[in-house]
Automatic annotation (TrEMBL):
<dbReference type="InterPro" id="IPR006297">
    <property type="entry name" value="EF-4"/>
</dbReference>
<dbReference type="Pfam" id="PF06421">
    <property type="entry name" value="LepA_C"/>
</dbReference>
<dbReference type="InterPro" id="IPR004161">
    <property type="entry name" value="EFTu-like_2"/>
</dbReference>
<dbReference type="GO" id="GO:0005886">
    <property type="term" value="C:plasma membrane"/>
</dbReference>
<dbReference type="GO" id="GO:0003924">
    <property type="term" value="F:GTPase activity"/>
</dbReference>
<dbReference type="InterPro" id="IPR009000">
    <property type="entry name" value="Transl_B-barrel_sf"/>
</dbReference>
<feature type="binding site">
    <location>
        <begin position="16"/>
        <end position="21"/>
    </location>
    <ligand>
        <name>GTP</name>
    </ligand>
</feature>
<dbReference type="GO" id="GO:0043022">
    <property type="term" value="F:ribosome binding"/>
</dbReference>
<keyword id="KW-0378">Hydrolase</keyword>
<keyword id="KW-0547">Nucleotide-binding</keyword>
<keyword id="KW-0472">Membrane</keyword>
<comment type="similarity">
    <text>Belongs to the GTP-binding elongation factor family. LepA subfamily.</text>
</comment>
<dbReference type="GO" id="GO:0003746">
    <property type="term" value="F:translation elongation factor activity"/>
</dbReference>
<dbReference type="InterPro" id="IPR027417">
    <property type="entry name" value="P-loop_NTPase"/>
</dbReference>
<dbReference type="Pfam" id="PF00679">
    <property type="entry name" value="EFG_C"/>
</dbReference>
<dbReference type="InterPro" id="IPR013842">
    <property type="entry name" value="LepA_CTD"/>
</dbReference>
<dbReference type="GO" id="GO:0005525">
    <property type="term" value="F:GTP binding"/>
</dbReference>
Length: 601
């Protein structure tokens, strides 16, 4: 298709504002799928995505759309709808899908108004110079307030509230007009057709049958079937086994030219060989310069992951190896813990990523897992100037530390203005620094904070939701790092360190952490034959202490007479029980106690 007949756009929307429903409606109205199939939701393929109502992997669908002008002449356009991931952890993937488009539909629930993630993605789209089409969705809802929210998003985008389209993905109202508006408003792609090919990878998905399916947007030149291609970041070359467009099933084509969006299959088995953001070029006539904007995904949040049943360790290892084929951002290495046995230290983009990975492992591989409290990545400079990267609190050095640096984020919070006080208080306790505040409308504000990432990974979102009765929304983006007064707090059982509970915290919060952890463990660890002190310490200095009082539990005392076989049975039973015990020093602790202490965070 000639570039001037192409329109590449995405839909920016908050979770549940109806992106999938609208996308399905468009597929149906353009004849790509029939109404019944539309319900199968072509854009979100993964089960978990659908159940959790979030879109993680972006993909693209091509739709034909003919526009008839005043003179009755019909022009056949091809619209490429590119799906964007909707959540904060995937900002980099969002930015790549936006870079593949010339326009964005800003879709906002007419009963809810815009949310923080949508706003953040809107700003990203504006930075990418995309044409923005503001649209209010779900106008069929009785609770819809189109006038109010048209004012709000009109103001943000800089259009007259009257020009904000009103649609319903559910009834189909306004959707034909939206398709026409996309053709009229979104610029046609421009590129150099005679130049060596440059195509940006905006998504890459592992498929059990076909290997990695790579989604690209061609900027210049042409990619042809069966030619050899080069991945510019690594210089790796591959044979193109298939090239085509999705509409909604994969359809092989005779190549992809300027402005086109489609997929490639090269037979590679690991998404790391086909990286989001990388540039693909022809091997025979390679481009000199890659398209801008490529960066490697950086894991920012780490946590230990252990099978509850130690014998599941090999299954966990295989499961992680399989997930990695599909998730370029997932990193892990084996670690072991006195309290939890053998497991892995896993790096994630953020908390949602952590949850998704864990859920997939539990569901798809039938594993029962426990994860340690998440921590961020720290850079520790020793007094002798050596620099260490710490992703596990138990590796935090004990010697003379010069400086500790932690990642910081720029956070955007949107909420009804009545909650400003509560939000500020929360951010204050999380070492937040207020950068600015704007009213989006008379009763809704946008607050901008700089916060340490470590303060966000720890139940910040839950707190924010509960303090605002669920009305606040949050978006954050890592912007750099800062020095902070951080210390490692260890938890000791009878003088022995329990590794899974070590934490790196701000000095001012060390005491509170120590008191809460020792208190929790005191309640969970059964009494022993002797007194057991539980201490929290920074280095050698104890900052909190609890004591489990001794009991004398003599199992044999119950046995009257000299029934030897009964005695033996009891002793057997006790031994059985001990198997699931972890021994810390002289103290026997049931693994359940550790698990309970970690889960009740
Ligand atoms: P994610 O895929 O989770 O990001 O959600 P989404 O934004 O794609 O939302 P989805 O299309 O799954 O719709 C969310 C909910 O809103 C569903 O229960 C839909 O049935 C409902 N919904 C979507 N569009 C409309 C609409 O136009 N009117 C009404 N009344 N409900 C709608």
């Amino acid at each position: 298709t000639a570039p001037d007949l192409l329109r590449n756009f995405c839909i920016i929307a908050h979770i549940d504002h109806g992106k999938s429903t609208l996308a399905d409606r468009m597929l149906q109205l353009t004849g790509v799928v029939d109404e019944r199939a539309a319900r199968a939701q072509y854009l979100d393929r993964m089960d978990i995505e659908r159940e959790r109502g979030i879109t993680i992997k972006s993909q693209a669908v091509r739709m034909p759309w003919a526009v008839t002008d005043a003179a009755g002449v019909s022009t056949p356009y091809a619209l490429n709808m590119i799906d964007t991931p909707g959540h904060v952890d995937f900002t980099y993937e969002v930015s790549r899908s936006l870079a593949a488009c010339e326009g964005a539909v800003l879709l906002v629930d007419a009963a809810q108004g815009i949310e923080a993630q949508t706003l953040a993605n809107l700003y990203l789209a504006m930075e990418n110079d995309l044409a923005i089409i503001p649209v209010l969705n779900k106008i069929d809802l009785p609770a819809a307030q189109p006038e109010k929210y048209a004012e709000e998003i009109g103001g943000l985008v800089g259009v007259d509230p009257e020009d904000v389209l009103r649609v319903s993905g559910k009834t189909g109202a306004g959707v034909l007009e939206l398709l026409d508006k996309i053709v009229a408003t979104v610029p046609a792609p421009v590129g150099d057709a005679d130049a060596p090919a440059r195509a940006m990878i905006f998504d890459s998905v592992y498929d059990t049958y076909r290997g990695v399916v790579t989604y690209v947007r061609v900027v210049d030149g042409q990619l042809n079937p069966r030619e050899r291609i080069v991945m510019m970041s690594t210089r790796a070359t591959h044979d193109l086994l298939e090239i085509g467009v999705t509409s909604p099933e994969p359809i092989p084509t005779k190549g992809l030219g300027v402005g086109e969006v489609g997929y490639l299959i090269t037979g590679v088995k690991d998404v790391r060989q086909s990286k989001v953001g990388d540039t693909v070029t022809n091997n025979a006539k390679p481009a000199d310069e890659a398209l801008g904007g490529y960066s490697d995904p950086k894991p920012m949040v780490f946590s230990g992951l252990y099978p509850i049943d130690g014998s599941d360790y090999p299954i966990l290892r295989d499961a992680l190896d399989k997930l990695k084929l599909n998730d370029a951002a997932l990193v892990y290495e084996p670690e072991s813990s006195v309290a939890l046995g053998f497991g892995f230290r896993v790096g994630y983009l953020g908390l949602l990523h952590l949850e998704i990975v864990r859920e997939r492992l539990e569901r798809e591989f039938d594993l029962d897992l426990i994860s340690t409290a998440p921590n961020v990545i720290y850079e520790v400079t020793m007094e002798d100037k050596t620099i260490l990267t710490v992703t596990n609190p138990s590796e935090f050095p004990g010697g003379k530390i010069g400086e500790v640096r932690e990642p910081i984020v720029k956070a955007t919070i949107l909420a009804p203005s009545e909650f400003i006080g509560a939000i500020m208080e929360l951010c204050q306790t999380r070492r937040g620094d207020l950068q600015g505040m704007d009213y989006l409308s008379a009763d809704r504000v946008e607050l901008r904070y700089v916060l340490p990432l470590a303060e966000i990974v720890f139940d910040f979102f839950d707190q924010l939701k509960s303090k605002t009765r669920g009305y606040a929304s949050l978006d954050y983006d890592v912007i750099g790092e800062q020095a902070a007064d951080l210390v490692k707090v260890d938890i000791l059982l009878q003088g022995e360190q329990v590794d899974a509970f070590s934490a790196i915290v701000h000095r001012e919060k060390a005491y509170a952490y120590g008191v809460s952890m020792t208190g929790k463990l005191k309640d969970l660890i059964p009494r022993q034959q002797f007194e057991v002190p539980i201490q929290a310490a920074i280095g050698a200095r104890v900052i909190a202490r609890e004591t489990i009082r001794a009991i004398r539990k003599d199992v044999l005392a119950k046995c009257y007479g000299g029934d030897i076989s009964r005695k033996r049975k009891l002793l057997e039973k006790q031994k059985e029980g001990k198997k699931r015990m972890k021994t810390i020093g002289r103290v026997d602790v049931p693994q359940e106690a550790f698990i309970a202490a970690l889960s009740s965070e």
